[in-house]
Amino acid sequence: LALIAAATYPVDQIDILVPDGMSPHDYSLRPSDIGKIRQADKVLWAGDHMEPYLAKFAKQTANTIEWLDATHLMEDMGLYGSDPHVWLSPELAIAISKKVATWHPDNKEQALTDHQTFAADLMKLVEESKAKLAPVKKSGFFVFHQAYDYWFQAIDIEQLGAFTLSPERKPGARHIQKMRTQLRNKEVSCVLSEPQFSPTLIDTVVNGLPIKQGELDPLAGSSSLTKTAYADWLKQMTKSLFDCLK
C-alpha cells in the first residue's frame, strides 16, 4: 500500500507501520506505532480482515483522521473476492492512487499527473506480463500461501495450488500428500516460497524431487519508496515466476 501511495504522495511524509520481514497476519502494534497513528492526517490500510490490530484505532479516530480502507474500496468497485491481499490488484492500486493524489499537501495538480502516469504504466505492465508468461502459462506451479489471486488473474495465469491458505494454518496430512503426488506425477514444475516464512514446509513436500524453486514476496520487503516502486515490484514478481517456470 505504501508503494502505491508513493506514486503520488511525498515519500518523506509516508510512514510504514509493519516493518520489513514481519507478517501483517499476526503483527502487534508497538507504542511508537500507536504514536504514529495518532499523529497522522491520513491512514491507508488493508481493512480489519487483514489488519485487525488497526480496527480499534480506526473507530476511535474516525472523526480526526481520514482512514482509507482498501478492502472496502475494492468491495465498492465490485472486485473483491475471497483473497484479502487486495494490494495485489492493479485495478484497485489505480483507484487508491487516484484517491491519494487528492491528499497531496502541496501540489494536487502534479499529483494527479503522477497518478495518470502510474495508471498508464501499470496497465502497460499488465499487458507485458501477460505476453511474457504466455509461453509458460501451462506449466504447473505451487505458491506458499494463497496471496496472489488478484495479480495472477490480471496477468492471466493460474497457480495449481498453495501449500496453505494462511501462514497461521498448517496444512493437513492429506493436503500435503496430494501435493506430493502432484509433484511426483510431474504436474508441477516450480514451487515458490516467501521470505517472511520458513521454507521448512516446502522442503518437506519437495524433499528429494527435482523441482525448481523460486521466491515471491507479497509484501515487497526489498522495495524502497519511489514513484515507480509498485510497478517495479510487480515486474520483478513476473520475472521470478517466469524464471521458475521456463
Question: What does it look like?
Answer:
The protein has helices at residues 2-6, 31-39, 55-60, 70-76, 90-101, 108-133, 149-154, 173-184, 200-206, 229-245, and strands at residues 42-45, 66-69, 140-145, 161-164, 188-193, 212-215. With 246 residues, the chain is of the alpha/beta class. It has a 4-stranded parallel sheet, sandwiched between helices. Strands 1-2 form a two-stranded parallel sheet. Helix 5 runs antiparallel to helix 6 and helix 6 (108-133) packs parallel to helix 10. 43% of the residues lie in helices and 11% in strands.
The gist of it:
The protein has helices at residues 2-6, 31-39, 55-60, 70-76, 90-101, 108-133, 149-154, 173-184, 200-206, 229-245; strands at 42-45, 66-69, 140-145, 161-164, 188-193, 212-215. It has 246 residues and is an alpha/beta fold. It has a 4-stranded parallel sheet, sandwiched between helices. A two-stranded parallel ribbon has the order 1-2.
The global form is globular
Give Rg in angstroms: 19 Å
> Major sheet: order of its strands?
4-3-5-6
* Count, helices: 10
Task: Please bin the fraction of helical residues.
Answer: 40-55%
CA(first)-CA(last) distance: 30 Å
Mean pLDDT score: 91
| Coarse structural class | alpha/beta
Uncertain residue segments: none
The H-and-E topology, N to C, reads as: HHEHEHHHEHEHEHEH
Oligomer description: single chain
Query: Into which percentage range does the β-strand content fall?
Result: 5-15%
Number of strands: 6
Largest beta-sheet characterization: 4 strands, parallel
